[in-house]
Amino acid sequence: MEQLKTIGRELAMGSQGGGWTGQSKEFLDLVKSIGEARSKAEEDRIILREIESLRRRIAEPDVPRRRMKEYIIRLVYAEMLGHDASFGYIHAVKMTHDDSLSLKRTGYLAVTLFLSDDHDLIILIVNTIQKDLRSDNYLIVCAALTAACKLINEETIPAVLPQVVDLLAHPKEAVRKKAVMALHRFYQRSPASVSHLISNFRKRLCDNDPGVMGATLCPLFDLITADVNSYKDLVISFVSILKQVAERRLPKAYDYHQMAAPFIQIKLLKILALLGSGDKQASGHIYNVLGDIFRKCESSSNIGNAVLYECICCVSSIYPNAKLLDAAAESTSKFLKSESHNLKYLGIDALGRLIKINPDVAEEHQLAVIDCLEDPDDTLKRKTFELLYKMTKSTNVEVIVDRMIDYMISINDNHYKTEIASRCVELAEQFAPSNQWFIQFSVSNNFTFQTMNKVFEHAGDLVNVRVAHNLMRLIAEGFGEDDEGADSQLRSSAFNIELLFLHSELEFIYGNSTHIAAKILNNILCNKFLKMVLIFYSCMCLFS
Amino acid sequence: MVVHKGHITFRPLRSRIIAAVKSSTHQHKFLAGIEISFEVSDLLAGRAIGKRGERNSRSKMIHFVILISRQGKVRLTKWYSPYQQKERSTVIRELSGLILTRGPKLCNFVEWKGYKVVYRRYASLYFCMCIDPDDNELEILEIIHHFVEILDRYFGSVCELDLIFNFHKAYYILDEILIAGELQESSKKAVARLIAAQDSLVETAKEEAGSISNMISQSI
C-alpha cells in the first residue's frame, strides 16, 4: 500500500507512470513478458534468465535493503512458476531479521513460501521468531505467529511454546486468534508437547472476541475427534454459543450474505455432531437449536445451503429424532430437486447419510437418483455411485454391479477405476445371491477387468487377490463342511477351474481341459504368489 | 516377506508353504495354507488401505490453494501440506487439465486422487482449493468467495492484473483468511483492519526513514 501511495504521489507530480505496483519497471517488464510468452518453453527461458541475473545481483555486497526486498519478491514469483531459486533462501532468512516491518514482513512471507518445516535454514529463523513474539508492536507479533504456523516443527516447538501461550492473553484480538491457531498447529505436529496446555483452548472458547472464539473451534474439533468423552461437558456451552449466533447476537461484522456468522455455525454443527453421536442425553440438548437453525436457514444462498447441509449431517450423526429427521429429509428433497448441480451433489450425499438411519428414505427419491446417475457431470455420477454402493442389497446387487462395471469401462482415471473395481468385488462378496453366482461373476468379470486395463499395478493385484482369496475361502469352507450336494458342486467347479489353470501353466496332465477357461485363468492370475497358492491347494485337492 | 522396490518377493513364504505341505496332518496343511493366503491378501489389501490411512492421519481442512488463469497460467499458489517442487508442477498440470475443461453448469467440485478440489471461476481466473473428502464442499466454495470479496474490497474492483502485479499483497491477505489450512477469520472487517494497519505502519516507517535521511543529508 505504501508503494502504491508513493507511485500515486509520483504520478501526481507528473513523473513516469510505470503502473500501480510500486515495483520497479524491470519487474513489470518481467511479468509482461511472461504474460506475452507464447509457449511454456519461452516462459521458462525468460524466467531462467531472470533467475540467473538475480543470482548475480543478490550476491553483490551492499545491496540496498529495498532493492533486496524486490529481488526476494521476484524470486518468490519465479518459484511460484515452478523454478528453483534456492540460492535466494538465505537472503530471505536474513530479511526476517530486519527491524522495519515492511522488510520483515516480506522476509517472513518469502520464507513461509520457500521453506518447509524440515529445512536446514529453519534454525536461523527460530531465534528471530522468538524475539518477534516478544515485540511490543502487535503487527510484528502477528507476522511471527503466522510464520510459526508454517515453519515450527516438532523439534522447535519447545523454543516458542511459552511465548505463544503467553500471547493467548494478549490485549489485541488478532494476536490471541493467531496464537490459538499456532497452538493448534503445534498440537497437530506433536500432540505430546502440547497436551498439558489443552485447557487453554477451553478458556479461549469464552473469549470476548468472536474471532478468537471461532478460531478456537478448530483445535477443539480436532481434540473432540480424538477423544469425545472428555469434552461431553462442553455440549451445553456449544449449544448456547450456537443459539446466540443463530439469534444474531454476534457483531454484524460476522454476517455473511445475510446469514449470521455461518462459518462459525458450521464449525459448531460439526462439533455437536461428534458430541451427540450415539449419546441420547447429549443429543437431547442439541435438538432445539438444530430445529431453530433448520427453520431460519436461508435456502436461497449458497452459504445458507451449506449450513443446511451441515445440519443434515449433524442430524444423521446424533441420536435419532423423528422431527429433525423429517426436516432433514425435506431439505434433502429440495436439494435433489434443485437445478443446481452443486445442490444435487449435496442432496445425494445427504441421502447417503439418511439411508443409514432409515433405508426407506431412498425409495421416494429413486427417480432423482437415477437422473443423477445419467448426468453428464462426472462428479455427480461418481457421487451417485457411492450412494448406490450404500444402497446395495442382495436383491439389487447384480443390477448395481452391472452398472458400476459399465461405468468403470468408460472412465480413464486408473486410480478411480481400481476403486470401483474393488467396490464391485466387495459388493459381490457381501451380497452374492449364491456361491455359484459369485464364482461365475468372479471369473467373467475378472476377464473384463484384465482385458480392459493392462496397467494395473498393486491395485490390480488387490482386485485379483481379493477374488482369488474369496475363491479359496469358498473352497475351504466347502472342505470344512460335511454335507454334499451344493458344496460338492461348488468344489468340483472350483476344482475344475484350478485344474484347467494348472494344465495351461505347469503342463501337468490331469485330464480334459478347455483352452478358453485356461486362458481366462491365465489372465486372471498373473500374480506369482496366487499361482503358488493355487498349486498348493491343487496339491491338497489331489492328495486329500 | 521381503519388500523390494514395491514388489513383494515370496521366497520366505514359499518355504513356509513347502514346510506346511510337508507337515504331518491333513488338516494342518490345509489350515496353514489358508492362514498364509489370508495374510498375504490382507497385506496386499493393507498396502492400498495404508495409503489411504496415511492421507487421513494429518487431516487439515485445506491442503492447497491455487489460482490459475483460463490459459493455465499460475497466478498464486499456497501449499498447506507438504508438496515438493516437482510434485507441485504435476499437481498444477493435472488440475488444470481437469478443471479448465469443465463446462459452466457442472458441479464446482471434482474428485482428484482421493481428495476433492473445489473451484470457482471469476472472470478469467479459477480459484481452486483442495480439501479432504469429508469436508463441506459448499462451505469451501463460500470461503473462496469470502477471499474474493476481501480482495475486491482491498484492490477496489479487483481484476486479474491486480493479482498478477501485486501477488505478494494477495498472499498477505490470504494469510489473514487461512492459516495452516484452516479458516482463521470470517469477518471481512477484521481482515481489512489488520491489512490496513500493516500497510499504514509500513508507510509511516517509510516516511520516517525518508525524513530521517533528509535530516541527515541536510545536517551534513
Structural class computed from helices and strand pairing of chain A = mainly alpha
What is the terminal separation of chain A in angstroms?
86 Å
* Physical arrangement of strands within the biggest beta sheet of chain A: 1-2
Q: Which quaternary structure do these chains form?
A: heterodimer
Most extensive interface between two protein chains, with residue counts: A-B, 101 and 84 residues
Strand order within the widest sheet of chain B? Answer: 4-3-7-6-5
Instruction: Please tell me how large the radius of gyration of chain A is.
Output: 32 Å
Summarize the helix and strand pattern of chain B as letters. EEHHEEHEEEHHHEEH
Mean pLDDT of chain B: 76
Report the β-strand fraction of chain B as a percent range: 15-25%
Helicity of chain B, as a percent range:
55-70%
What's the N-to-C terminus distance of chain B?
A: 81 Å
Beta percentage of chain A is under 5%
Low-pLDDT segments of chain A = 1-21, 447-463, 478-483, 495-521, 523-530
The general outline of chain A is globular
Give the count of helical stretches of chain B: 7
**Global structural class of chain B:** alpha+beta
What overall form of chain B do the CA principal axes indicate? elongated
Quantity of strands of chain B, as a count: 9
Mean pLDDT of chain A: 79
Tally of separate helices of chain A: 28
